């Protein structure tokens, strides 16, 4: 390209109010916000919180959508780059800027959804993601099974599930933190919520409404006990397992299986006749468990997901 490449963070809330050419890094650009929207393939009112824009000599070279809504995580779409403007250099600059923005905003994780990359550039972007420190955590697969009152899998380990509404939100969050401690079979698939603060933020993300309030979903959040000891937590909606975590010393001992079977019984009492869940393609152990319990895969139904975390 021959010119200095710069990446600027554009606040969409501010930029959308401007109809003229933007000023980025003290330099007048040769493009306006509508041009960025077209490059990022944005339509209607569905806009990210911010955009990373790569530019040189007033020209837009690439753009990346990012969202700060899911604290402590930054979510981003893969870089969109003008194919004639040196794809590799621009994509790498945008990904490096994404990491710096994560640190600047005190976030601890970033996810990139590899969905908008033109054919022929998928592996190039994958290489850059690995070089920057992102890990491929696979694609999300939906699995389901029909629930039948006449036949139920036998339960080998008795786990008592108690509604988080009964125990209170603080007790549930502490239980989430305890059940989210390492070691993990595969760290890539685990939320980073080993602290009480991290657990609270994670549960707000999984079970909260638009404002992060989880009070309305507490009756669908469960704490699992065995002989009076905490062994697991789960977040659900009727007929759907959103998230499950088992205490470290209890993992790979049948606790997860018992919790899911108990949830199925709860759902059948509620009148639900089909159960569903999502599992990452890299989480082989969980996928194997669900298959053994009769869940059928409907195939990968999400783009490839990459995750980066502060060590």
Give a short overview:
The protein has 311 residues and is an alpha+beta fold. It has helices spanning 12-15, 33-39, 87-104, 122-132, 164-167, 169-179, 196-207, 255-269, 284-292, and strands spanning 6-11, 23-24, 27-28, 50-56, 59-67, 73-77, 80-81, 109-114, 135-138, 140-146, 160-163, 221-226, 229-237, 240-246, 274-280, 296-300, 304-309. The protein contains nine helices and 17 strands.
Helix content: 25-40%
What's the pLDDT, averaged over the residues?
Answer: 84
Any idea of the CATH topology of the largest domain?
Answer: Aminopeptidase
Shape: elongated
Segments where pLDDT lies below 50 for 5+ residues? none
Q: For the record, what is the CATH homologous superfamily label of the largest domain?
A: Gcn5-related N-acetyltransferase (GNAT)
* Strand-pairing-aware structural class: alpha+beta
Beta-strand percentage range: 25-35%
* SSE arrangement, N to C: EHEEHEEEEHEHEEEHHHEEEHEHEE
Number of separate helices: 9
Number of domains: 2
The major beta sheet can be summarized as: 8 strands, mixed
Tell me the total number of β-strands: 17
CATH level 1 class label of the largest domain: Alpha Beta
Judging by the overall fold, what is the CATH architecture of the largest domain? 3-Layer(aba) Sandwich
N→C terminal distance: 34 Å
**Radius of gyration based on Cα positions:** 22 Å
């Amino acid at each position: 390209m021959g010119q200095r490449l710069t990446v600027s963070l554009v606040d969409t809330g501010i930029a959308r109010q401007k109809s003229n050419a933007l000023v980025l890094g003290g330099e007048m650009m040769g493009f306006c916000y509508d041009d960025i929207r077209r490059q990022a393939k944005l339509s209607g009112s569905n806009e990210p919180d911010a955009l990373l824009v790569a530019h040189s000599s007033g020209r837009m070279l690439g753009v990346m959508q990012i969202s700060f809504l899911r604290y402590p995580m930054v979510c981003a779409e893969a870089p969109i780059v003008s194919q004639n403007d040196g794809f590799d250099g621009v994509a790498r600059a945008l990904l490096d800027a994404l990491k710096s923005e994560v640190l600047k905003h005190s976030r601890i994780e970033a996810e990139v959804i590899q969905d908008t990359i033109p054919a022929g550039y998928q592996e190039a972007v994958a290489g850059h993601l690995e070089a920057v420190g992102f890990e491929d955590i696979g694609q999300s697969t939906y699995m389901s099974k029909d629930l039948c009152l006449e036949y139920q899998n036998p339960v080998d380990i008795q786990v008592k599930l108690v509604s988080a509404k009964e125990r209170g939100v603080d007790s549930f969050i502490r239980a989430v933190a305890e059940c989210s401690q390492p070691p993990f079979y595969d760290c890539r698939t685990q939320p980073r919520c080993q602290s009480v603060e991290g657990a609270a933020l994670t549960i707000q993300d999984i079970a909260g409404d638009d404002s992060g309030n989880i009070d309305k979903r507490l009756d669908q959040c469960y704490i699992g006990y065995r002989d009076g000891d905490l062994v697991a937590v789960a977040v659900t909606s009727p007929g759907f397992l959103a998230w499950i975590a088992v205490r470290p010393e209890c993992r790979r001992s049948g606790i997860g299986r018992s919790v899911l079977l108990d949830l199925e019984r709860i759902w059948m009492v509620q009148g639900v006749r089909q159960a569903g869940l999502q599992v990452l393609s890299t989480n082989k152990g969980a996928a194997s468990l669900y298959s053994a319990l009769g869940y059928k895969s409907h195939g990968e139904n999400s783009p490839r997901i990459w995750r980066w975390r502060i060590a």
